[in-house]
Amino acid sequence: MVQGAVNWNTGMSQKWLQEYVDDWVSFYRKHTSEGEVASYIPALKEAKQDHLGISIIGMHGMKIRSGDVDVKFTIQSISKVLSFIVACMERGVAYMLDKVDVEPTGEAFNSIMHLEMKQLKKPFNPLVNAGAITVSSMLCGETSEEKLDPLLTLMEKILGHRPNINLEVYESERETSTRNKAIGYYLLETGFLESDIEVTLDTYFKQCSLEVTIDDLARIGLILANDGKDPDSEEHFIPRQVARLAKALMLTCGMYDASGKFAAYVGIPAKSGVSGGIIAVSPPRVRNEPLPFMDGCGMAVYGPALDSKGNSTAGIRLLRHIATQWDLSIF
Ligand code: DON
């Protein structure tokens, strides 16, 4: 049974928090029946509709995991945050912002309409497909392997292992993604792309097909919460300015045309993907009373049943509940 308001002052042992989170995952799992597993990429249809899991990693080793935590899934649109970060590290923030804007669209992630109707000088933002495909074209390298190597190296440094490309999902998307090809060719025609169109699209399809777990995404979220720095080794994986820019984009554009509602009701930077993952970042917060994860944490949920915007139905509800209970909102 889901709890009402809790006085977190009364003790915050890991075991106690774990029991709450287990309770909330069980409660919110029923909302998986309200969504649908993505099917426009045939290989994604194999996901289990009723899966729901969460991983939360705090600054000093505190870790809460609950539900379907060990499922591997493809990162999909969450890769857009990482490719933008790597492109900023390679090309510089000023150059990237000259080529891709930072404005929310209010449109679906794969919308083409606004590109032509608004006669844009640059795509709206790096977290919708048009912006992300432009960013993929701006990664350094001649081939998709060369372009993705620094992204994989960054993930390897943060995670301690190098993620694989799920070849079944990659091939499934490459064979079926006529809309992304249409977006890519429109970007080519308007002069936005900086690399060969086929290499650009191949890079985009491969980055979406990287295999991760919620622990991987929560760890990346933790690094972003700490402005790009590993809280234990103090190594700066991502420059502070780039990490902060990525969080601003996640907050304003990360949940597509549901970003406003997510900011209003959950209030932390996040990014979703059509395989059902959501990465969320809770920066350190100052309050008058002790609350869980006050130094900040990275969180990730997996729940492949999606709503009409392409976001995990149960995952969003679970994050909203936790954000309310633990007063996570940055506002
Ligand atoms: O562009 C596509 O179709 C996918 N590979 C990625 C889309 C995605 O994850 C959108 N997320 N909600």
TrEMBL record:
Substrate binds at S77, N129, E173, N180, Y204, Y256, V274. Keywords: Acetylation, Hydrolase. InterPro entries: Beta-lactam/transpept-like, Glutaminase. One of its GO terms (molecular function) is glutaminase activity. It catalyses: L-glutamine + H2O = L-glutamate + NH4(+). Pfam families: Glutaminase. SUPFAM superfamilies: beta-lactamase/transpeptidase-like (SSF56601). Its EC number is 3.5.1.2. Homotetramer. HAMAP family: Glutaminase (MF_00313). Belongs to the glutaminase family. This is Glutaminase.
